[in-house]
Amino acid sequence: MTWIVFYLGCGIAFAHFFRIRFLPVYFCALILLITCVIFIKRDLVFKILFPCFVFILGALLLLNSYILPKSHISHFIFYKNDTVFTVKGFISSQPQLKEGKPSFLFRTEELEFNSAHYKCSGDILVYLKEAKSLAYGEAFILRGAIHKPFKLYGDRVSGIMRVNSPICAVSLGKNCGHPLLRLAYYLRNNAEAIIYRKLSRLAAGILDAMVLGEKSNIPFIVYDSMSKAGTVHILVVSGFNVGVVASIAVLLLKVLGISRRIRCFLAILCLIIYCFATGVSSPVVRATIMAVFLLAGLIIKREADIRNSLALAALCILFLNPRDLFSISFQLSFSCVAAIVFLYPELQAFFRSQSIRPKILQSAAQGCLVSLSTWLVTLWLVAYYFRFFSPVTVLANIFIVPLATLITLCGFSLVIVALVFPSGANFFVPSIELFVALLINLNNFFIRLPFAYLYL
Questions:
Q1: Bridging pattern class, strands 138-147 and 116-119
Q2: Structural domains of the chain in order of their starting residue, each with its CATH number
Q3: DSSP helix/strand/coil, 105
Q4: 131: Cβ contacts below 8 Å, ≥ 6 apart
Q5: In angstroms, how far apart are the furthest CA atoms of the chain?
């Protein structure tokens, strides 16, 4: 399975760096597919042809992702555009509030300009001048100028619209969003309300990032210091968070006497909701897919293979959006897990960490090796994208990761207890505040060490 991901990724990269046309690649993929089917029983021929097909398929996926329907809104707008557009659609993301001004992704359905009316599709990023109470799925008619974005906004955003007057944003009084997403955002909003009501601003901002993936409320100085120490990954919702959600769901359902198979199905549903609630980022999607395969293995009574699960997660993400291969989030997320899956066992065998006694020293040594393996694999990406080198990362993560684990567990406990027994949630507040203060001070201590980080 791993080699399939390798060839698919090579094909995507080839199509990205070299100018090739869709139709020749399409016919080539079709011919290779038919040939593979014909020679499926001829072992040697099939082993040569199938990797070629996977390679061409990767290139085809990327080229296909660039093809947009004729009704796509990007065909109607330009980089500099003073034309006033009237757009009908609905809010397709969780609205964000910055300096009192809301912004959100808007799924377009109808477009009107220059007295002409068109059906359209695609998402635009909308900025409102004045604050409004907004929710995912709410239908609007918006009026304002739209221009094409720079690459900074990513592939999903096809245009940027600024609405400068309240009368130019008319609510249609209906909700067009998906019920599952509405539930996910409702739970997220409630969880965030609990976090910010119970904790100080700094502790709430860090916990919000660790539990729900929202990093906008973390002070820049804190984020910058954690980047220098190589510990900023703890602010990303990833496999550990998904594991906590799955464990809590399975445990609660077990207490209720639900059968094992139904428990696994319901746990998968909880993971999907949590994935949407945390913003569907590459790390959480990767972890969710891997957890789903693991739970599916329990349902059909088959043991899951961590390497195959990782490869399947990569395949699912690249099939949905092959351009994710070039995102920093995707590369760092899969590099970290691949380091633990492939490199860590080799380091463990080389240093013979399992023979260390007593157990507490063995655990410490294995923690060092996990940190070392991820650092060795990701330092090249960090150096390339962020232009600095952090030798202190290995040492810092030995202390920071266990502390971040405690904060995350306390954060989940705070939210769950507050929903059931509000006054009981106060028990976790002092612990979270203490652990967050300790986390920041420890991180600052490590970056003050000589040669802790170097700019390249």
A1: unpaired
A2: 2-65 (no CATH), 73-177 (2.40.50.140), 236-326 (no CATH)
A3: strand
A4: 97, 100, 101, 102
A5: 79
Q: Are strands 157-163 and 123-128 parallel, antiparallel or unpaired?
A: parallel
384-437 per-position pLDDT tens digit: 888 888 889 888 888 898 898 899 889 998 998 998 888 888 889 999 999 999
306-320 and 43-65 helices, crossing angle to 10°: 40
Burial of 415 by CB count in 10 Å (0-12 exposed, 13-18 middle, 19+ buried)?
Answer: buried
- Count of other CB atoms within 10 angstroms of residue 447: 19
**pLDDT tens digits, residue range 25-57?**
999 999 999 998 888 878 788 888 899 999 999
Q: How far apart are the first and last CA of the chain?
A: 37
CA 342 vs CA 328, 338, 349: distances in Å: 21, 6, 12
Residue 158 phi, psi (nearest 5)? -95, -20
Calpha distance 325→433 (Å, rounded) = 37
d(Cα 63, Cα 29) in Å, to the nearest integer? 13
Burial 342-353 (b: 16+ CB within 10 A, else e): ebbeebbeeeeb
Task: List Cα–Cα distances, 401 to 95, 195, 406, in angstroms.
Answer: 31, 21, 9
Dihedral sign from CA coordinates of 123, 128, 134, 140: negative
Residues belonging to the chain:
456
